[in-house]
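Q: Sequence in, structure out?
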Amino acid sequence: MSKILKKILLLAIVTVSVNATNHIVDQKGKTFIPHSLDVTVGDTITFRNSDPFAHNAYTDDEENEFDIGMQAAGVDTTIRVKGAGKFDVECAIHPNMLLEVTAH
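A: Exactly. Output:
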């Protein structure tokens, strides 16, 4: 890869990082707060566990697939939104928890 192309790619990555917004989603009372979220590709979502027990957040969406695993009480875990579209985030431990994300 040429040096110029590498510099352009690095600049693009830095630009996305600088303009990205971090969205906080609290997990409290066995629910995601807020219940829906509008984000931009490149933004981050921090899942904060405010309950006194473990949670999990995951999605099977092809563009944004992630699974934060077993998240202990009091822990924050951050993921990056990779693709546009609508997708649901669920908790594998508490199946009634649902977060609807729309990424632009």
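The chain has a mean pLDDT of 90.
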